[in-house]
C-alpha cells in the first residue's frame, strides 16, 4: 500500500462549500476527534495532527490554507510536514554539519598550502559528508513511517471537504 502512495506533500483542491461552512464543520469535528487528533484553527488556517497520546517522533502534521473563491467554493492549499520541533532539530543538525564541514575545509586548504599534514581534516570532511547522507536517510525513513498517519489525516480532511 505504501508503495502506491498517491498523496502529495503539497496539494491543491477545491471544496464545493463556503469558507464559513468548512470552518464551522472543522469546529464540530474538533470536539468529536479529540484527544486522538488535534485540530487548531486560526483565521483561514487549519492544522491537523495526531493527539499527544498517539503521536510519534515521525508523525506528520497537515496544514490547510483556505481561500474563498468568487463562486462560493473554497480553494484549499494543503501541506504535509514533520513535527515542527523535529524539523527544527534536523535543520540545526544540518547547519552544524555544514559549519564543521566548512571549517574543516578551510583548515585542510590552509594546511595544504603550508605543506602540513591534513589527514584529520580530510577525515572530518568525509565524516560530515557521511552524516549528511545519514540525516537524509533518517528523514526519508521517518517520512515513510508517517505515511499511514498521513492517510489518517487525509481521511479526516476529506470527511469535511467532500
Automatic annotation (TrEMBL):
The keyword Transmembrane helix applies. The chain crosses the membrane at residues 85-106, 118-139. It comes from the Bacteria. Keywords: Membrane, Transmembrane, Transmembrane helix. This is GTP-binding protein. It comes from Flavobacterium jejuense.
